[in-house]
Design a protein that fits this description.
The complex is a heterodimer. By secondary structure, chain A is an all-alpha fold. Chain A has helices at residues 3-7, 10-14, 20-30, 34-49, 60-69, 82-88. Classes of the chains: A mainly alpha, B mainly alpha.
């Protein structure tokens, strides 16, 4: 897939209309393309509006179940930005990511797997996204019309 | 969908008026509080968004039991990753719907990969399901806004988008279903979503 083709995949990616191979390829591209990353975020916002016409109340039992089970889910600590990391440890290479350690951390407690690459994007997914490192603009296509 | 209870307009949580910036900000704050361990904030986030996510998932997967599983899984993911939500990258509602949609698509693709091949005719026969969206769209102002935005799309754009978003088809499958040249469906998605985004004023 050439570079132009992969830019054009943003819409399909935003609505999960890609297969696993295309997803992996596009996420690798997103790692270096601010333009596509911004575009995907905006297209996902548009796609999520499609569900505005299909509101359906889940059963009360689901609410009970969700709120019961979140008690067993420890929110992952935030990811440090490269700037924060450099500030905390000036000798560290600034491009490397570090998972913050919360002050309430319990020694010996099992840590949940970190499901995100360094990104600061706040878009967890399963399987985890492999994008959002510091990126240069892709340059071959301007911002969406 | 048989047995589906659609929320009457009068019962809509105010936070579902997703177009309002104040609502988006409120949901972000709830997520932020949740990331700090505030379970009451998470409950409010759930109450404000569950009908939207469950409605989508129910439309995507087969059966309420599976829809409930996928919806629960999405909320647990949100809970675990709430500290990593970045409002600069989109709204909290969009984030939730993205995660839920992906989970629903994954569930259907893994469970029905074989069955899908056997029901292609059925899918083709059902044609383009967006009329259901349109029908339901009159139920609240937010949906009405989306309905108007959808009306600006071409028939092919709408059909392709609906087949992908609600049908869970890949762009190649959509191309086959709509008799489009292979490789062009993805362009239709992008064009359609850009138009929707711009019509709805959703620029990030």
């Amino acid at each position: 897939m050439n570079n132009d083709d992969i830019h054009g995949l943003s819409g399909a990616y935003a609505v999960d209309a890609v297969d696993d191979i295309e997803r992996a390829g596009f996420e690798a591209h997103l790692a270096g393309c601010d333009t596509c990353r911004d575009e995907v975020a905006s297209l996902r916002a548009a796609a999520s509006e499609l569900a505005a016409g299909t509101l359906t109340s889940p059963p009360a039992s689901l609410r009970t179940s969700v709120l019961r089970d979140i008690g067993a889910v420890r929110p992952l600590p935030p990811l440090l930005t490269s700037e924060q990391e450099a500030e905390a440890d000036p000798v560290s290479p600034p491009a490397r990511s570090v998972q913050a350690t919360p002050s309430t951390w319990t020694p010996g407690a099992p840590q949940e797997p970190v499901s995100l690459a360094r990104c600061g994007s706040g878009w967890p997914a399963s399987p985890p996204p492999r994008f959002w490192p510091p990126a240069a603009s892709c340059g071959t296509r301007g911002p969406p019309a | 969908m048989v047995g589906m209870k659609v929320v009457p307009q009068g019962e809509l949580p105010s936070a579902l008026r997703a177009g309002a910036p104040s609502v988006s900000s409120e949901l972000s704050e709830l997520l932020n509080a949740s990331s700090l361990g505030d379970e009451a904030a998470f409950a409010k986030f759930y109450d404000a968004t569950a009908a939207r996510l469950f409605g989508l998932v129910l439309r995507r997967v087969r059966g309420r039991a599976q829809a409930e599983e996928v919806t629960q899984d999405a909320y647990l993911d949100i809970r675990a990753n709430s500290s990593q939500f970045d409002p600069d990258r989109g709204s909290a509602l969009s984030w939730l719907m993205t995660i839920g949609h992906r989970k629903a698509v994954d569930r259907v693709r893994s469970a029905e990969a074989t069955k899908r091949r056997d029901t292609t005719y059925e899918a083709r026969d059902q044609a383009i399901p967006f009329d259901q969206t349109v029908e339901a769209a009159h139920r609240d102002l937010d949906a009405q806004r989306v309905h108007c935005a959808l009306s600006t799309l071409t028939q092919t754009q709408r059909g392709a988008l609906e087949l992908a978003y609600f049908g869970g088809y890949t762009h190649r499958e959509v191309a086959l279903l709509l008799d489009l040249p292979l490789g062009t469906a993805k362009t239709r998605f992008r064009d359609a979503l850009i138009r929707l985004r711009d019509t709805l004023g959703l620029e990030i």
